[in-house]
């Protein structure tokens, strides 16, 4: 057993990766002072996972503790460890918008295109939550902008649905397909049009989105914009050449 160390947080002697009552370790809790004294110890188990499958690196990444992440990465923590649900440190940091942590994880070899059990990648999570800087870093590093989750949604579709203009711009520049459709036939243009995001609609139109694609119910972007009363979006679609007389089957 390794020698004890004086924990400045716990106010007692602990072993560097002592297991707590909930199955994690003191390093899992993200305290930099504990990490600084514990990580250098040769026998520390840096990839120990708690009862939820999270490692110390994952907990630190999720909370944006840059210094702790740096220490753990230097000590050899696995950036690609995943929970049973497929979550990784990169996904957690990306979801919460911690650009510096994302940078460290990418440089340490984190898999950019790992997907969780729902098919969501780090890029998709960053896009869903509107984190432009993280999206930019991931696409520059080579993340796939056209990966689709189990529902058929891509990062571009999630960003368009939520009106994140800057994120949409980044994804379009990175080569995201504006015409990708779910199994129900929904596209990014339909999602943005439904929610009235005129600037996003403009970007998608300029990037080559098909104005007259219809979903499985026969509804086009123009129809859903009209249905929800988004005058500016309707005007932009009409101006771009959307079919005014398209009709659903019912």
Task: Explain the overall architecture.
With 250 residues, the chain is mainly α. The protein has a domain at 1-109: Serine Threonine Protein Phosphatase 5, Tetratricopeptide repeat. Helices cover 42% and strands 2% of the residues. The protein has helices at residues 32-38, 56-62, 66-74, 89-95, 99-107, 122-128, 132-141, 155-161, 165-173, 188-194, 198-206, 221-227, 231-240; strands at residues 5-7, 12-14. A two-stranded antiparallel sheet has the order 1-2. β1 (5-7) and β2 (12-14) form a beta hairpin. α6 packs parallel to α8 (155-161), α7 packs parallel to α9 (165-173) and α11 (198-206) packs parallel to α13. It is elongated. The N and C termini lie far apart (73 Å).
Which structural class should the secondary elements be placed in?
mainly alpha
CATH topology of the domain at 1-109: Serine Threonine Protein Phosphatase 5, Tetratricopeptide repeat
Radius of gyration: 23 Å
| Order of neighbouring strands in the sheet with most strands | 1-2
Q: Helicity level, as a percent range? A: 40-55%
User: How much beta, percentage-wise?
Assistant: under 5%
CATH 4th-level superfamily of the domain at 1-109: Ankyrin repeat-containing domain
User: SSE order in H/E notation?
Assistant: EEHHHHHHHHHHHHH
Question: How many strands?
Answer: 2
How far is the N terminus from the C terminus? Answer: 73 Å
Number of helices: 13
Envelope shape: elongated
* CATH C-level label of the domain at 1-109: Mainly Alpha
- The unreliable regions are 1-23, 30-34
What would the average pLDDT be, to the nearest integer? 87
Biggest beta-sheet profile: 2 strands, antiparallel
Do you know the CATH architecture of the domain at 1-109?
Alpha Horseshoe
